[in-house]
Design goal:
heterodimer, A: about 350 residues, alpha+beta, Alpha-Beta Plaits, 10 helices, B: about 290 residues, alpha/beta, Nucleotidyltransferase, domain 5, six-stranded mixed sheet, five-stranded mixed sheet, 8 helices, about 30% helix, about 30% strand
Chain lengths: ~350, ~290
Amino acid sequence: MIKSNLMPSASGKTAPQAIGMKVKSGGLNKKKGGESKSRLSSVANFLFMLFVFFMSGLLYLLIFGVPGFLRGTIPQNILDLLGLSEETAATQVLREAGAPKLTAHGTRAEDPAVPVNGSVEEVVRTMRPDIYFRDRQLTSYKEQALSNRIPYQKQAFHIMLSTFYKATPDGIGYLDLAYQAPNFYFVRVVAQDSRTRTSYLDQLRAKVMPDMIVRDSATIKDGGIEFSVFGSTAQPELSELKPMRLIQYSRVKSEIMALRTLAVANQVRLVGWEKPIEEELETYRRVILRTTTEADYPSLLNFAEALQKSDVAFGVQQFVSRPSGPEKMLSALEFVLYAAMR
Amino acid sequence: MQKVCLGIEISQDGVKIALVEPERRHIIKIDAVPTSGNSIDDVSIYSSVLSSWVRSNLLPKINSIAVAFSSCNGVIRLVTVPKETESALNYVNWEFACSINSKASNYKTDIVFYPSVKKPERAIVTAMRKKIIESFCSVELEKSGFKPNYLMADVCALYNLLEYTEGLSGQPKCILKADEKFAMAFWGNETGPLAIRLLPKDNISPEAVTDILETGFKEFPKAKKNVKFCGELSGNAEFTGELARAAKDLGESVNLQLWNSLSKFSLEKVGDFSKLSQCMGAVGATLSYI
């Protein structure tokens, strides 16, 4: 039987028996009014579903907090508006357990001429480790191929952060905490008293800092002693570094995405990764990412560790961190990647 | 009380009517009424002809109406679906859109796949202009009581009638329907329609009709060369005689059989069924209710 019928299905008084295979019939002649009404109702349904979804999502965030996979993706102003915090219980414990706190102090620093209460960018501009280490030969680093410098930087960055994390006792606050590849550091510190200061410096020396120059500030304010320490951290073991190859230029974007994903996974929200700076050098391209983040110290440390273990082709060329308000810090991270020429 | 269905076949200048009790397989009345124009193009002709016919005949209450239209008043296509086609429906719609000289959106289409919708090899596409369909759905026609419940191509109605009365096997069977202004032959077996040949009014002659029969049978060399003949010209003895002779004279002679009886249907005792072969499409249309 050919069950064919061109009449609109609604007009059929009797339903056709299911003998033939009717593939397409009816519906084509429906009035336009009916169509628009049904479209309107489906749009309304969709909006209602969207509203319910949004409200349940909001309720979830308010009750359970921001889930791990979303950390670093929700803009801070929205989080502030909703009164949410991305700090996990783990990072809170770490922070309260004596992670270095960057406390804002208005004291004036002497040489080196790092601006006091200047912006991170100003601090970055005035970072001149080469002044202090003019005579040091960085043979082990500079002899390395470009591709080997990246794992070196990643490990040195982690060493620097973990060293200061472990060496900082209670009563020490940082005004500036800076790192520059391969393994320079510069910190401007406020100790609550001279005993704390001595204890801190002793711990730093115990962490095998090959170069450590301490320069006291001229002023003691609010009972705190301000001083600067700079030098170089322990160097990574070259033999233990994960060998890397120069990546192809076409992979730069995917590397940026990988870096960002890694940062987000460690609760580090990077700003400015959208605008990489590219330099074409003789045989390779250098891609620099200048980013900033408000992540706390434990999160940064976790990120540095994850970066060191990862295959991400970005190294950390420079890192400067300073307070940006009570219990808050702002860090500038300058990542570098070397890509083979096209 | 048995339900009564009015089967109507609309041709270029006439309507064929069959009053049938589908559940009893009983034909109450048949008739062929000439019209002053094509009822498909002008639905007022259709309603006025039927109104006067109903008034002039003592009829039982009509429960439903099924209309078969001549293939020349719409579009009928037998489409072969290529095996590599991902979406048979899309392919058939595309093929249909390519085969007509106006927008496909102007047509209401009905597509049936064979041998099955899961593994389609062929598709019967029937289509008619939406304007015509809308005229059959008009309020005026509904008020007149002649709004059809089913609207189909005569090919479908005749195929269903052949299947129902004769039964279909793997062997292809052929039906020839020749009207004054249009002729059509089609072949089908248990897997569905296999081939269709159409002949426009200016070409209708015994030779031209035998020609489409011959070319059609070439596709089915093992088929028995029997043809069921129906349509307006089946009532024309002279044409039928010439056609039968021409068919016999073919290289492989074709046996023309006048289709004027239906094995599974009973006929009203008092009534004129001499025009049954002309009204097969109308009877076939009522099978929608079986």
